[in-house]
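In line with agreed milestones, the collection of sequences with tokenised folds has grown. A representative record is reproduced below.
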Amino acid sequence: MATYKVLYNPKSNNGQGEAQVKALYNLLEGNDLDMVDVTKFNDVKKIIGTLAADEKLVVSGGDGTLNHFLNDIDGMDIKNEVFYFATGSGNDFLSSIGVEKGNLVPLNRFFGKLPTVTVNGKDYKFINGVGYGIDGYCCEVGDEMREKTDKPINYTSIAIKGLLFHFKPVNAKVTVDGKTESFSRVWLAPTMFGRFYGGGMIPTPDQKREDGTVSTMVYHNCGKLEALMVFPNIFKGEHVKEKKIVKIFKGHSVTVEFDKPTALQIDGETIKNVTSYTVKI
């Protein structure tokens, strides 16, 4: 019998995290599970410091929960086995590595191999992607709605309304490995380490985390109606056929600068009023 310390986020998947994490009792039947609500006790380093040598750790939640954990442990030398059990609504990390929800994913192999994004002078690790533009706007609006209601957030609806009415495209400069290009009417400018983000969007279909690079997609130079018509294709990765309005870069160092402050999201976690970000790997 093994002992598992389970760090779970009850708020994941619109408040379904606590109910869904109970599936671990069947998945790990016969083992001892110690459940810790990370919203009540979130000193991850302290928790890891108390683990016995043979104790295992499980992180349970959505992509945002996983992001917080990876940033909390950055720089630590963890000897214990660490697993991820997804209870999020989008679960883009699982999609990127080809694992179905309901399975335990070994995490240790991903430690120390993640890119860093610098925003407003602060560094963050990320495992999926950095969204800038309409995707950051959607996260910002979703966060505001979540504070007012317990109902599930429809991000597709937010995106459509944003494209048609509320989000205004910006001008941008994108610098990849020292080479800069300028773009007008930019709707999206994400940088990806995995292939999926935003609950199933595939902005850079050829991105492979094993290559040790990141990919940046610029969705630009189109009006709101064309932007809306092509937008659904991002969920299939087919938007890349639209060469006039989609450009993809690959590299080790990326800086994206907007001429107006815009919300940005890192693995689903929102940062407001951002004018630039830099990713390095």
About this structure: The domain at 3-110 is CATH 3.40.50.10330 (Rossmann fold). DSSP finds nine helices and 15 strands in the chain. The chain has two domains: 3-110, 116-280.
